[in-house]
Amino acid sequence: MNQARLSDHAYAGIVEIIKSKDLEVGARLPSEARLAEMFGVSRAIVREALVRLASDGITEARRGAGSFVKSRPSDRLAAFMPMSELPATLGSYEVRFVLEAEACRLAAIRRTSMEMAHVEEGMEMLREALLSNAPAHAEDMELHRRIAAATGNPAFLIAFDALWSDVEKVMRAGVDISRSRPPEVIATMLREHEVIVAAIRAQDAEGAALAMRWHLWEGRRRLMP
Amino acid sequence: MNQARLSDHAYAGIVEIIKSKDLEVGARLPSEARLAEMFGVSRAIVREALVRLASDGITEARRGAGSFVKSRPSDRLAAFMPMSELPATLGSYEVRFVLEAEACRLAAIRRTSMEMAHVEEGMEMLREALLSNAPAHAEDMELHRRIAAATGNPAFLIAFDALWSDVEKVMRAGVDISRSRPPEVIATMLREHEVIVAAIRAQDAEGAALAMRWHLWEGRRRLMP
DNA sequence: CAACCCAAATCTGTTGGACAGGTTATAGCT
DNA sequence: AGCTATAACCTGTCCAACAGATTTGGGTTG
C-alpha cells in the first residue's frame, strides 16, 4: 500500500510538540525552518503538514509572524484512538437517528422553494439510480444531504459531513453482503424516501421527523438483521 | 486581515475543475505540473492545495501515478457557501441542542465507572476555572466532550468535534460582550452543569437529557438575550 | 527616564530547478 | 496477437533564493 509520507510524520511530530510542550492556545510554535531542522526534513514538507494542521483547525499561520496554536489537539486525538481500533460499527447510525430526524423536522418547517426543488431533484436522482439497479450509495447520501441543507442551518451539514465517511463504510459493507438486492427492497427504499420528501413538501414537521426516523430504523435493520 | 493565499485559489480552482469537467469518482486529474501551469503558480502551491483536498477526502494521491477523485465535492461545497457569508450565527447551538441532549441521555444509560470518573474530573476542572474567575471556555467544552464520550459511541465525538470551532467562536464573541461575568452567572453555570453530571451519575436518562437541554437553552439566552 | 521611530532580524508565502523512485504506456520483438 | 523492456510521466522530496509582513531592539529625542 501507499507508504506513509514524510508530511504525515511531520504532522504527528508537530502535534506531539503542542501536546508535550503544553503550548497554550495562542502560543507561537517554532518557525518552519526550525521544525524542518528538528524533523530532518525540508521546509516544504513542514509546510504541507502545517497546511493540514490549519485545515484541521489546530494551528493558524500569520504571514510574517509565525504559526500559532488555535485549538489544542490533546484529548481530542486521544478520544479518537479507540475508534480506529473498532470494526465498522453502527455507531454512526445512532447519531444519524438523532441528528437527521431533527434536521428533517426543521427542513419541513423552514424550507424555501429553492431548497425544496433541490431536494426533489435529489429524489429524482435516487429514483433513477435505484430503478436502473445501479449502486445508489452516492444518490442516497446526496438526498439526505440536501434535506439537511434545507434546514438553512449549515451546522447540520457540518455534523452530517463529519459522519459521512463512516456511514458510507457501513453501507458499503452492508451491500457487499446482499449484492443481489431483490426488487421488493428497492421498492421499499424508494417508498420510504418518497414519504419523507412528501412530508417536507407538505411542511408536515412531525410527519417528516417520524418518516426519517422510521427510514433510518428500517435501514439499520436491513444492514444488521 | 490575512489576505487570501494562492493555495486557496488553487484549491478552489481544482474543485472547479472536478465539478465543471464532471470528473467521476476515481478519475485522474491533471498532473501537479499541469495544474501549476493552468493556475499560473508554482508546483509547491498546487501541492499544498492537493494536501488540503486529500485531507478533506476529496482527492487521493498515488505516488508515481497521479491524483484521483475520491469523492465529488459538487454540491457539498456549494451548500457551505452561505455559511462563510453569514456572521457568526447561533446555528451550531441548534445542532448541539439536538445532539448533546441525546448524547447526555445515552451517557446516563451506558456510562462505565471509568467514563463517569472522567466526567467528574472534567466537572472539577470547570468548577476550579469558574471559581477562580478564569476564562472557562476550554473547561466547559471539555466537560461536554467527556459527556459525549461517555456514550461509548465515537460517532458522537466526531459530530461534536466538527461543530467545535464554530461553537467556540460564538462563545468567545459572547464573552467579549459581558467581560465582567457577575457572580450570579458563575453560580448559575456551575449549578446547571452539576445537575447534568448528577443525573448521569444517578443514571437518570430523562433527567440528564432534560438538564442538558435546559442548560443549552439558557446558555443561548445568555449569549443572545 | 519614558516615549517614539527606524532599521535589522525573523518569519511566512512563493518560485524555480533538480533528483529519486514508482507507475503507465508505447514500441519493438517474438 | 501477445509479451517484454524501455521510455515517458508522475508524485515525493530537497535546496537555494527572494518578496513582503511582522517583531524586536537600539538609538534618538522630549
Brief summary:
Chain A is mainly α and 225 residues long. Chain A contains ten helices and three strands.
Structural account:
The structure is a homodimer of 225-residue chains. Chain A is mainly alpha-helical. Chain A folds into 2 domains: 6-75, Orthogonal Bundle (Arc Repressor Mutant, subunit A), CATH 1.10.10.10; 87-223, Four Helix Bundle (Hemerythrin (Met), subunit A) (Up-down Bundle). Chain A contains 10 helices and 3 strands, in the order H-E-H-H-E-E-H-H-H-H-H-H-H. In chain A, helix 1 (6-20) crosses helix 3 and helix 5 packs antiparallel against helix 10. The radius of gyration of chain A is 22 Å and the shape is elongated. Chain A starts with 5 loop residues before the first helix and ends with a helix. Chains A and B meet through helix 3, helix 4, helix 5, helix 7 and helix 8 of A and helix 3, helix 4, helix 5, helix 7 and helix 8 of B. The first copy, chain A, binds a DNA duplex (30 and 30 nucleotides) through helix 3.
Task: Outline the fold blueprint.
The structure is a homodimer of 225-residue chains.
Chain A: H1 6-20, E1 28-29, H2 32-39, H3 43-55, E2 59-62, E3 66-69, H4 74-85, H5 91-110, H6 113-131, H7 137-149, H8 154-177, H9 183-201, H10 205-223
Antiparallel strand pairs in A: 1-3, 2-3
Helix pairs in contact in A: 1-3, 2-3, 5-7, 5-8, 5-9, 5-10, 6-7, 6-9, 7-8, 9-10
Chain A binds a DNA duplex (30 and 30 nucleotides) through helix 3.
Radius of gyration of chain A: 22 Å
CATH topology of the largest domain in chain A: Four Helix Bundle (Hemerythrin (Met), subunit A)
Outline the biggest β-sheet of chain A. 3 strands, antiparallel
What is the chain-wise order of helices and strands of chain A? HEHHEEHHHHHHH
Question: What is the number of independent domains of chain A?
Answer: 2
CATH class of the largest domain in chain A, named Mainly Alpha
**Known CATH architecture of the largest domain in chain A:** Up-down Bundle
Range of helix content of chain A: over 70%
Structural class of chain A: mainly alpha
Largest interface: A-B, 49 and 48 residues
Oligomeric state of the chains? homodimer
Approximately what portion of the residues of chain A adopt beta-strand conformation?
under 5%
The count of helical stretches of chain A stands at: 10
Q: How many beta-strand segments of chain A?
A: 3
Could you state the CATH homologous superfamily of the largest domain in chain A? GntR ligand-binding domain-like
